[in-house]
Amino acid sequence: MERVHFVGAVGMDHSRSSDGGDRHGTIHPILPADPATFSLGAFGPIRHDFHDHPLMQLPRLSQLARDLMPSSQCRFAARPLTQTSEFLHVSRPPEGGTIDEVLDRIAEPGSWVALYNVQTDPAYGGFLQQVLDSAGSLLGDGGREVLQITGFIFLSAAPAFTPFHIDRENNFWLQIHGRKILTVFDHRDRDVVAAERVEDFIVHGSLEGVRLSDAARERGRVFEVGPGDGVYFPSTTPHMTETPVNADGASNMSISIGVNFYTDQTRRHARVHQCNRVLRGVGLQPREPGVSAWRDAWKAPVGWSIAAARTRWRGYVAPPFAY
After folding, report:
1. Contact 288, 195 (CB under 8 A)
2. What residues does each domain of the chain span?
3. CATH code for 2-12+24-185+220-262?
4. In principle, which of 85, 135, 136, 300 could form an S-S bond with 30, CB 3.0–4.6 Å?
């Protein structure tokens, strides 16, 4: 397993004004650590300076958590998590108490709080747009196809973990505060997650069967990150995180944010997955999205029709952007 230490890999001027811009009122762009190899179709390290932004400071994030708590957008670990445990989280602190009490203890070992869909807050919705605007050069032509932007913020204190899982969205994952270890796997590696499990997730949102085997663990790439570091990874990329204890035993409280987005291609691939799931059910071995353009061209509308029919005639409610 390759371990990547890239703190400070790309030099950036971090001098900022109080409104989150630099002294000229602009935001530095997200930059790839290796511009020659960066691709929206594969994971790779990036650099940013959004850790200095006023909205990313703990007092402001604490206020956001209080604002989101009534709508169940604060999520808490349902039990002590490991990287290989089932990804269970709940909308109320498992040990009881208020969100203020949880935030007062956020630096205590093992603390874990996630803020979901922060784009519902106008200030943070604007922040997410700002992040993607700064990444415009990386999005290329795909920047014209961005359909929806969502944001998820994670606060955790060592030792803490986010279990192995996959997501539907493309993700600019940014480290804001403290240290974290992110392990990422190739989303096309079927020795890590089988095609059938990806299809189950796209269609039903089920992570059942998305488990990391001991044999597959060594196929991941480990990024050890600090403030200003990040990793981009595309839809359905398997990943997991660890908030590690510092070498000197001192407390390590981590803040990170996933700035997620969908594109026309994300939706097309989801529709192909829907079609493939039906084809697999009748004994065929269909090719995956992105392998054959002409196959994708006829599978995508078929997949959309299947999902639409299930919605209309069977009362099925598709997960967001499943088709």
Report:
1. yes
2. 2-12+24-185+220-262, 267-313
3. 2.60.120.650
4. 135
Query: Hey, what are 118's tokens?
Result: 């922060």
Mean pLDDT across 31-36: 92
Could you give the CA distance from residue 154 to residue 139 in angstroms, rounded to a whole number? 24
Q: Could you tell me whether strands 221-225 and 2-5 are parallel, antiparallel, or unpaired per DSSP bridges? A: parallel
Strand partners, 232: 44, 172
Which pTM was predicted?
0.87
Name which residue leads in pLDDT, 77 or 22: 77
**Whole-number average pLDDT of the chain:** 86
The strands making up 112-115's β-sheet, listed across from edge to edge, are 31-32, 44-47, 229-233, 170-177, 253-262, 148-157, 112-115, 74-77, 89-90
Residues in the chain: 323
Task: Dump strand ranges (E) for 85-169.
Answer: 89-90, 112-115, 148-157, 160-165
The two tokens of residue 23 are 């002294």
Tally Cβ neighbours within 10 Å of residue 127: 21
Q: What is the separation of C-alpha 37 from the centre of its chain, rounded to a whole number of angstroms?
A: 21
- Whether the CB-CB separation of 212 and 83 falls below 8 Å is answered with yes
- Give the list of residues 6+ apart from residue 99 with CB closer than 8 angstroms, or none: 65, 66, 69, 74, 93
Cα gap 194→172, rounded to integer Å: 24
Residues 6+ apart with CB under 8 A from 13: 22, 28, 49
State yes or no: pLDDT of 244 exceeds 70. yes
Neighbours of 131 (CB within 10 A): 22
> For residue 56, which of 155, 141, 193, 180 has the smallest C-alpha distance?
155
- Tell me the mean pLDDT in the region 246-256: 87
